[in-house]
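Entry:
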Amino acid sequence: MTPGARTASTAATAAARSAPATSPVTAPVTAPAPPPGSARDFMLLYSPPPRRGLLRTLLALATELAAGGARRLDQGIARLRLEWWDEEARRLAAGTPTHPWLRDQRRDQAELSAALAPLVQACVQDLASEELTAGATPQLAGQLFVQSALLLAGAPLAPAARQALAALGRCVAGLEELASLAPRPSPLPKTRASAGVPAGAVAPAGAGVPAGAVAPLIWLRSQQLAGPLLEPTLQPTLAPLLVWVAVAAHQEQRRGRRAARKSATIAPSPLDGFVDNIVAWRCARGAVRGAVRIAIDERFG
């Protein structure tokens, strides 16, 4: 190696050593996925691959918005959090978001912006009704279903469809709230999914269950007796949301049956994941035909 080449090599090595490492702030940050085996996880699994990343981000954003209620934050602190998110929704609409999950969503920023703003406003309504600080987000839950449906459909939805979706969203929120209150074995296996409530249990106050419902499962059963949960023509497109409902309802009934045995722990079975997959597949197949029917045991509904 010539002296000139050696000098150039030494300079290059020194420059490489002094160069700052890649900043974690500028590295792409992906929104966290739902817990494996959860009803939300199945919803993403049955979503079209091009929409999956967008829906995953939307679910994570809704969870973050509801965090004030989950942590039982003071109403003033919860209001400050929502004010920040309202400003972030405006920044997203202007193409200058600051949140790590949103900065690298340039391709989907317009759709995310259209979905995030209604979620924030729904959470503001929950806060105004003092339900957010009580740990419940019925308006947010309903709006999450509506916005997810808009992302899946890629087209506007009729008011009747929006109302049906919002009611389903509040029902699922009730199922998830009850599951979060349920006793669980410890440590929690990675394949453990949310389940249900004992027979005869009712939804806690403010769980986001549709008006007039004693419990989410009772509401689901009564809705199916009255007619389809969603317009049959919409079911093929919105199959992922129906899978979400079906798996959440099935998991709750399973936990309810186990709780009724009065065993010391409500232990999961190695077959739980297999059965959940069958429930999801049957629901998706029914949605293709516009004939979804979610099985509700009479003991629960």
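The longest helix spans residues 159-181.
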